[in-house]
Protein backbone atom coordinates (compact mmCIF):
# COMPACT_ATOMS: atom_id res chain seq x y z
CA UNK A 1 0.00 0.00 0.00
CA UNK A 2 1.26 3.43 -0.95
CA UNK A 3 1.67 6.20 1.55
CA UNK A 4 2.62 8.95 -0.85
CA UNK A 5 -0.89 10.21 -1.32
CA UNK A 6 -1.64 11.90 1.93
CA UNK A 7 -2.68 15.34 3.11
CA UNK A 8 0.05 16.21 5.58
CA UNK A 9 -0.69 17.83 8.90
CA UNK A 10 1.76 20.51 10.05
CA UNK A 11 1.81 21.88 13.56
CA UNK A 12 4.67 24.37 13.29
CA UNK A 13 5.97 26.80 10.68
CA UNK A 14 9.35 25.03 10.67
CA UNK A 15 7.79 21.77 9.58
CA UNK A 16 6.69 23.14 6.22
CA UNK A 17 9.26 25.88 5.75
CA UNK A 18 11.97 23.23 5.77
CA UNK A 19 10.46 21.53 2.72
CA UNK A 20 12.94 21.90 -0.19
CA UNK A 21 10.61 23.64 -2.62
CA UNK A 22 8.90 25.89 -0.11
CA UNK A 23 8.76 29.63 -0.81
CA UNK A 24 7.56 32.21 1.68
CA UNK A 25 5.85 34.18 -1.10
CA UNK A 26 4.59 33.22 -4.56
CA UNK A 27 2.41 34.71 -7.23
CA UNK A 28 0.15 32.23 -8.98
CA UNK A 29 -2.92 32.03 -11.17
CA UNK A 30 -5.64 29.43 -10.69
CA UNK A 31 -4.29 27.27 -13.53
CA UNK A 32 -0.84 27.15 -11.86
CA UNK A 33 -2.22 25.26 -8.84
CA UNK A 34 -1.58 21.55 -8.60
CA UNK A 35 -2.74 20.37 -5.21
CA UNK A 36 -3.08 20.90 -1.50
CA UNK A 37 -0.04 19.22 0.05
CA UNK A 38 -1.08 19.67 3.63
CA UNK A 39 -2.80 21.69 6.29
CA UNK A 40 -1.31 23.66 9.13
CA UNK A 41 -2.64 24.59 12.54
CA UNK A 42 -0.32 26.78 14.59
CA UNK A 43 -0.21 27.41 18.35
CA UNK A 44 -2.52 30.05 19.85
CA UNK A 45 -0.10 33.02 20.31
CA UNK A 46 -0.22 35.27 17.27
CA UNK A 47 3.59 35.52 17.11
CA UNK A 48 3.64 31.83 16.09
CA UNK A 49 1.45 32.48 13.04
CA UNK A 50 2.69 32.97 9.53
CA UNK A 51 1.72 35.46 6.84
CA UNK A 52 -0.08 34.14 3.81
CA UNK A 53 2.44 33.62 1.02
CA UNK A 54 0.04 33.79 -1.88
CA UNK A 55 -0.34 36.69 -4.27
CA UNK A 56 0.88 39.33 -1.82
CA UNK A 57 -1.93 38.61 0.60
CA UNK A 58 0.47 38.81 3.54
CA UNK A 59 -2.16 38.39 6.28
CA UNK A 60 -1.18 36.31 9.33
CA UNK A 61 -3.26 33.16 9.76
CA UNK A 62 -3.35 30.55 12.48
CA UNK A 63 -4.57 27.83 10.17
CA UNK A 64 -4.37 27.26 6.47
CA UNK A 65 -2.92 25.17 3.68
CA UNK A 66 0.38 24.31 2.06
CA UNK A 67 -0.27 24.44 -1.64
CA UNK A 68 1.86 23.15 -4.54
CA UNK A 69 2.08 24.72 -7.98
CA UNK A 70 2.51 22.69 -11.17
CA UNK A 71 6.22 23.67 -11.29
CA UNK A 72 6.71 22.06 -7.89
CA UNK A 73 7.06 25.18 -5.79
CA UNK A 74 5.09 25.36 -2.58
CA UNK A 75 3.80 28.08 -0.31
CA UNK A 76 1.34 28.56 2.50
CA UNK A 77 -2.02 30.31 2.44
CA UNK A 78 -4.65 31.12 5.04
CA UNK A 79 -7.69 28.89 5.33
CA UNK A 80 -10.01 31.28 3.48
CA UNK A 81 -7.44 32.77 1.11
CA UNK A 82 -7.41 29.99 -1.47
CA UNK A 83 -11.12 30.33 -1.93
CA UNK A 84 -10.88 34.14 -2.08
CA UNK A 85 -8.06 34.09 -4.62
CA UNK A 86 -9.08 31.18 -6.83
CA UNK A 87 -12.79 30.48 -6.35
CA UNK A 88 -14.01 27.35 -8.13
CA UNK A 89 -10.51 26.05 -8.86
CA UNK A 90 -9.77 26.10 -5.13
CA UNK A 91 -12.95 24.16 -4.38
CA UNK A 92 -11.73 21.43 -6.74
CA UNK A 93 -8.42 21.30 -4.89
CA UNK A 94 -10.18 21.10 -1.55
CA UNK A 95 -12.46 18.32 -2.76
CA UNK A 96 -9.44 16.36 -4.02
CA UNK A 97 -7.68 16.85 -0.66
CA UNK A 98 -10.77 15.68 1.22
CA UNK A 99 -10.91 12.56 -0.97
CA UNK A 100 -7.22 11.90 -0.32
CA UNK A 101 -7.76 12.32 3.41
CA UNK A 102 -10.68 9.88 3.43
CA UNK A 103 -8.65 7.33 1.46
CA UNK A 104 -5.69 7.70 3.83
CA UNK A 105 -7.93 7.29 6.89
CA UNK A 106 -9.46 4.14 5.40
CA UNK A 107 -6.04 2.74 4.55
CA UNK A 108 -4.75 3.44 8.04
CA UNK A 109 -7.77 1.85 9.64
CA UNK A 110 -7.41 -1.32 7.53
CA UNK A 111 -3.66 -1.48 8.18
CA UNK A 112 -4.20 -1.05 11.91
CA UNK A 113 -6.65 -3.96 11.99
CA UNK A 114 -4.34 -6.08 9.87
CA UNK A 115 -1.48 -5.31 12.26
CA UNK A 116 -3.49 -6.61 15.22
CA UNK A 117 -5.02 -9.52 13.34
CA UNK A 118 -3.38 -12.20 15.48
CA UNK A 119 -4.16 -10.41 18.71
CA UNK A 120 -7.80 -10.04 17.64
CA UNK A 121 -8.01 -13.71 16.69
CA UNK A 122 -6.56 -14.72 20.06
CA UNK A 123 -9.03 -12.49 21.83
CA UNK A 124 -11.90 -13.86 19.73
CA UNK A 125 -10.96 -17.48 20.47
CA UNK A 126 -10.67 -16.93 24.17
CA UNK A 127 -14.02 -15.09 24.17
CA UNK A 128 -15.71 -18.00 22.41
CA UNK A 129 -14.87 -20.43 25.17
CA UNK A 130 -15.64 -18.11 28.08
CA UNK A 131 -18.86 -16.80 26.52
CA UNK A 132 -20.07 -20.33 25.74
CA UNK A 133 -19.90 -21.29 29.41
CA UNK A 134 -22.20 -18.47 30.43
CA UNK A 135 -24.52 -18.75 27.45
CA UNK A 136 -25.21 -22.33 28.41
CA UNK A 137 -26.16 -21.25 31.92
CA UNK A 138 -28.34 -18.34 30.73
CA UNK A 139 -30.27 -20.69 28.45
CA UNK A 140 -30.77 -23.17 31.29
CA UNK A 141 -32.04 -20.47 33.66
CA UNK A 142 -34.38 -19.11 31.00
CA UNK A 143 -35.76 -22.54 30.18
CA UNK A 144 -36.74 -22.94 33.83
CA UNK A 145 -38.14 -19.46 34.42
CA UNK A 146 -40.12 -19.20 31.19
CA UNK A 147 -42.38 -22.01 32.34
CA UNK A 148 -43.83 -19.75 35.03
CA UNK A 149 -45.70 -16.86 33.47
CA UNK A 150 -46.33 -14.80 36.58
CA UNK A 151 -42.82 -15.13 37.90
CA UNK A 152 -41.46 -14.30 34.45
CA UNK A 153 -43.55 -11.13 34.40
CA UNK A 154 -42.02 -10.11 37.74
CA UNK A 155 -38.54 -10.92 36.46
CA UNK A 156 -39.10 -8.66 33.44
CA UNK A 157 -40.36 -5.87 35.66
CA UNK A 158 -37.29 -6.26 37.87
CA UNK A 159 -35.03 -6.14 34.80
CA UNK A 160 -36.67 -2.90 33.70
CA UNK A 161 -35.73 -1.46 37.10
CA UNK A 162 -32.09 -2.49 36.56
CA UNK A 163 -32.53 -5.45 38.85
CA UNK A 164 -34.23 -3.68 41.73
CA UNK A 165 -36.65 -5.84 43.71
CA UNK A 166 -39.12 -3.30 45.05
CA UNK A 167 -41.76 -4.02 47.59
CA UNK A 168 -44.53 -1.88 48.92
CA UNK A 169 -44.18 -0.80 52.53
CA UNK A 170 -46.79 0.92 54.61
CA UNK A 171 -46.26 4.62 55.14
CA UNK A 172 -46.10 5.94 58.69
CA UNK A 173 -49.31 7.86 59.33
CA UNK A 174 -47.49 11.15 59.93
CA UNK A 175 -45.39 10.87 56.78
CA UNK A 176 -45.04 14.17 54.97
CA UNK A 177 -44.53 12.28 51.74
CA UNK A 178 -47.97 10.78 51.89
CA UNK A 179 -49.75 10.85 48.55
CA UNK A 180 -53.43 10.16 48.16
CA UNK A 181 -54.39 7.01 46.36
CA UNK A 182 -51.12 5.24 47.11
CA UNK A 183 -51.22 2.18 49.29
CA UNK A 184 -47.66 2.68 50.42
CA UNK A 185 -44.13 3.59 49.43
CA UNK A 186 -41.82 1.41 47.37
CA UNK A 187 -38.68 0.13 48.95
CA UNK A 188 -35.84 -1.68 47.17
CA UNK A 189 -35.05 -4.81 49.16
CA UNK A 190 -32.45 -6.22 46.79
CA UNK A 191 -30.82 -5.75 43.42
CA UNK A 192 -30.35 -8.68 41.08
CA UNK A 193 -27.25 -7.83 39.06
CA UNK A 194 -27.19 -8.55 35.35
CA UNK A 195 -30.79 -9.71 35.22
CA UNK A 196 -31.35 -7.95 31.90
CA UNK A 197 -29.29 -10.72 30.34
CA UNK A 198 -32.22 -13.03 31.02
CA UNK A 199 -34.92 -10.85 29.55
CA UNK A 200 -33.60 -8.76 26.68
CA UNK A 201 -29.94 -8.11 26.10
CA UNK A 202 -28.63 -11.62 25.67
CA UNK A 203 -26.69 -12.42 22.50
CA UNK A 204 -24.98 -15.73 21.78
CA UNK A 205 -21.61 -14.18 21.09
CA UNK A 206 -19.83 -17.52 20.88
CA UNK A 207 -21.84 -18.13 17.69
CA UNK A 208 -21.44 -14.65 16.28
CA UNK A 209 -17.69 -14.71 16.85
CA UNK A 210 -17.06 -18.22 15.56
CA UNK A 211 -19.31 -17.87 12.51
CA UNK A 212 -18.60 -14.36 11.35
CA UNK A 213 -15.67 -12.66 13.07
CA UNK A 214 -13.08 -15.44 13.01
CA UNK A 215 -13.56 -16.81 9.46
CA UNK A 216 -13.49 -13.36 7.93
CA UNK A 217 -10.62 -12.06 10.02
CA UNK A 218 -8.68 -15.17 9.03
CA UNK A 219 -9.05 -14.23 5.39
CA UNK A 220 -7.44 -10.81 5.91
CA UNK A 221 -3.89 -10.54 4.60
CA UNK A 222 -1.70 -7.89 3.06
CA UNK A 223 -1.80 -9.74 -0.27
CA UNK A 224 -5.56 -9.98 -0.23
CA UNK A 225 -5.93 -6.28 0.47
CA UNK A 226 -3.42 -5.19 -2.13
CA UNK A 227 -4.98 -3.69 -5.23
CA UNK A 228 -8.39 -3.33 -3.63
CA UNK A 229 -10.34 -0.23 -4.65
CA UNK A 230 -11.03 2.58 -2.24
CA UNK A 231 -14.65 1.43 -2.00
CA UNK A 232 -13.64 -2.15 -1.22
CA UNK A 233 -11.13 -1.00 1.38
CA UNK A 234 -13.80 1.18 2.98
CA UNK A 235 -15.99 -1.93 3.28
CA UNK A 236 -13.09 -3.85 4.87
CA UNK A 237 -12.50 -1.03 7.31
CA UNK A 238 -16.17 -0.96 8.26
CA UNK A 239 -16.31 -4.69 8.83
CA UNK A 240 -13.07 -4.61 10.78
CA UNK A 241 -14.48 -1.92 13.07
CA UNK A 242 -17.65 -3.98 13.42
CA UNK A 243 -15.58 -7.03 14.49
CA UNK A 244 -13.83 -5.00 17.15
CA UNK A 245 -17.22 -3.68 18.28
CA UNK A 246 -18.52 -7.26 18.53
CA UNK A 247 -15.55 -8.37 20.63
CA UNK A 248 -15.98 -5.36 22.91
CA UNK A 249 -19.67 -6.08 23.40
CA UNK A 250 -18.98 -9.76 24.00
CA UNK A 251 -16.49 -8.79 26.70
CA UNK A 252 -19.05 -6.51 28.28
CA UNK A 253 -21.69 -9.24 28.25
CA UNK A 254 -19.17 -11.57 29.81
CA UNK A 255 -18.63 -9.13 32.67
CA UNK A 256 -22.39 -8.88 33.18
CA UNK A 257 -22.62 -12.70 33.16
CA UNK A 258 -20.04 -12.81 35.94
CA UNK A 259 -22.30 -10.55 38.00
CA UNK A 260 -25.42 -12.53 37.15
CA UNK A 261 -23.89 -15.82 38.29
CA UNK A 262 -22.00 -14.40 41.24
CA UNK A 263 -22.74 -16.39 44.35
CA UNK A 264 -25.98 -15.34 45.99
CA UNK A 265 -27.19 -13.18 43.13
CA UNK A 266 -29.82 -15.46 41.59
CA UNK A 267 -30.94 -16.41 45.04
CA UNK A 268 -32.54 -12.97 45.27
CA UNK A 269 -35.22 -14.27 42.89
CA UNK A 270 -36.61 -15.92 46.00
CA UNK A 271 -37.40 -12.44 47.34
CA UNK A 272 -39.57 -11.84 44.29
CA UNK A 273 -41.40 -15.06 45.04
CA UNK A 274 -41.68 -14.19 48.71
CA UNK A 275 -42.91 -10.61 48.40
CA UNK A 276 -44.52 -10.35 45.01
CA UNK A 277 -46.39 -13.58 44.51
CA UNK A 278 -49.61 -14.83 46.03
CA UNK A 279 -49.64 -18.01 48.08
CA UNK A 280 -51.59 -19.92 45.46
CA UNK A 281 -49.00 -18.93 42.81
CA UNK A 282 -46.17 -20.46 44.81
CA UNK A 283 -46.66 -23.97 43.54
CA UNK A 284 -44.24 -26.71 44.46
CA UNK A 285 -43.08 -26.93 40.85
CA UNK A 286 -42.31 -23.18 40.86
CA UNK A 287 -40.36 -23.42 44.11
CA UNK A 288 -38.47 -26.42 42.76
CA UNK A 289 -37.54 -24.59 39.56
CA UNK A 290 -36.40 -21.51 41.47
CA UNK A 291 -34.14 -23.77 43.53
CA UNK A 292 -32.83 -25.26 40.30
CA UNK A 293 -32.12 -21.75 38.95
CA UNK A 294 -30.17 -20.87 42.09
CA UNK A 295 -28.18 -24.10 41.77
CA UNK A 296 -27.14 -23.18 38.21
CA UNK A 297 -24.79 -20.46 39.41
CA UNK A 298 -22.39 -23.05 40.73
CA UNK A 299 -22.59 -25.37 37.72
CA UNK A 300 -19.52 -25.51 35.55
CA UNK A 301 -20.51 -25.74 31.91
CA UNK A 302 -19.28 -28.77 29.98
ZN1 LIG B 1 -4.06 35.09 2.03
Structure description:
Helices cover about 50% and strands about 15% of the residues. It has helices at about 15, 80-85, 90-115, 115-145, 150-160, 195-200, 205-220, 220-225, 230-260, 270-275, 285-295; strands at about 10, 35-40, 50, 60, 65-70, 75-80, 165-170, 185-190. Zinc ion (ZN) binds next to strand 6.
In short:
It is built from eleven helices and eight strands. With 302 residues, it is an alpha+beta fold.
List the helices and strands and how they pair.
Elements: E1 8-10, H1 13-17, E2 33-41, E3 50-51, E4 60-61, E5 63-69, E6 74-78, H2 81-86, H3 88-115, H4 117-145, H5 149-160, E7 164-169, E8 185-191, H6 196-199, H7 205-219, H8 222-225, H9 230-260, H10 269-276, H11 284-296
Parallel strand pairs: 1-2
Antiparallel strand pairs: 2-5, 3-4, 5-6, 7-8
The structure holds zinc ion (ZN).
Which terms would index this structure?
elongated; single chain; alpha+beta; four-stranded mixed β-sheet; 14% strand; binds zinc ion; two-stranded antiparallel sheet; 8 strands; 2 domains; 302 residues
Amino acid sequence: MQHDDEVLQFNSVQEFQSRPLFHTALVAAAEDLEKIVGKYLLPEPRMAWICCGLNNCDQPHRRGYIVRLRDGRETNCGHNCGSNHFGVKWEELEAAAAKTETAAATRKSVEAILAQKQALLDRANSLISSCAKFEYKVLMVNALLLQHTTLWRHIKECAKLDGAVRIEVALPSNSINYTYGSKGALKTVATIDGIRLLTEDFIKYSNVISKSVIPELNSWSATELEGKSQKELAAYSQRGQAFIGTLNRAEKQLQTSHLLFRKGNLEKIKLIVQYKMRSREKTSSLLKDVDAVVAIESIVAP
